[in-house]
Design goal:
This is DNA-binding MarR family transcriptional regulator. By secondary structure, the protein is mostly helical. The protein has six helices and two strands. The longest helix is centred in the N-terminal third of the chain and has 30 residues.
Amino acid sequence: MTGNAVDAHAAFVELEREIGLLLRRSRAISARLARELHPDLDGAAYGLLALLEDAGPLRAGDLVLRLGLDKSTVSRQVASLVELGLVDRVADPDDGRAQVLSPSAEGAARLAGIRAARRARWESDLAGWPADDVATLAVLLERLNRIGDAREAESEEGSTPPGE
């Protein structure tokens, strides 16, 4: 092995370790952010509200698929967010029997405040990084997320019984 060569196995071991740490921190941060939205919310609620803001309006079933959570967890979180006035339910314009969910004005405003504070924290934490490095990190994370999205889409297709 030359001085510049990278051991692929060691690189993947380090990647797994660092992503694991990032995910553990992310869960802790999500729990804190959910409490900032409202003291009675748990961590899953923050991600649910953020997804509704970014991709909504969505049906509860869409949330289950996109978040990879079980139906009962999503149902409980949606009920809590609706009860607290952070999410609105309306009839689906394409199917009046179904409901679609979107952030309420209050939910969107609270989420925007939390996201602004979070961005400010990132700017502070990474102030010593060149802007090009921050942009590169964002591009690499986007590539990684696209791989995850594709894998989820494949597993959803594979779980659909033939003929459906």
